[in-house]
Protein: Haloacid dehalogenase type II
Amino acid sequence: MPADQHQVLVFDVNETLSDLAPLRGRFEDVGAPGHLLPTWFAGVLRDGFALTASGAYADFTSVAHDGLRTLLSGLEGWTGDEEAAARHILDGLCQLDVHPDVPHSVRKLSDAGYRLTAMTNGSIALTERLLDAAGVLDCFEALSDVHGPRCWKPAPAAYHYAVERVGVGPEQAILVAVHPWDIDGARRVGLDGAWLRRGASVYPRTMTPPSFSAQDLEELVRVLVADQ
Structure:
């Protein structure tokens, strides 16, 4: 078992475990530039956060679909079918793979005694498919999404929901995420945070700093398992 007080690792999913890069090709399939992928995804997060801040809720797919229709309709010279194009791009979510460092690293963390769970702003169904395809679904004792608390991370209730589902307090868990806003949100409610840089080099000064920092999951394994 882990030597310190941490028992549970709570994994974010989108971009932390999953590689969204293949969706660029889906944009290109419908005649839109692939570089719109990060713009669209950032807009999905913005709108999901906004709904949560106002006390409302919509699921990831609904927000993502609206975002695609808005983005594509504003493209100069684009004359495609917004609905069909949005569906084609979103269908790509069901075909994503994990980052190459994920399968071996997840299994090593599980073998080291950490209890693993996931909390996503996306859906349990997509998370289950992703982890099953990677051969590590059996390493996770629970999968959660924001439909349960009906609010998106980084709302405090989302993190409380994730740890309550596995029967631990926030102080017994570490959120593993690539997004600084997610680390900040988790740390503000008592979880520790492990930031996966995945090529990024700067963490925002305005946000609560991570408890651990690693380039990828392989490095995080060395940090967490070496501490035992």
In short: The first strand starts at residue 8 and ends at 11. Residues 47 and 169 are 29 Å apart (CA to CA). The chain has two domains: 8-19+96-226, 23-95. The first helix runs from residue 23 to 29.
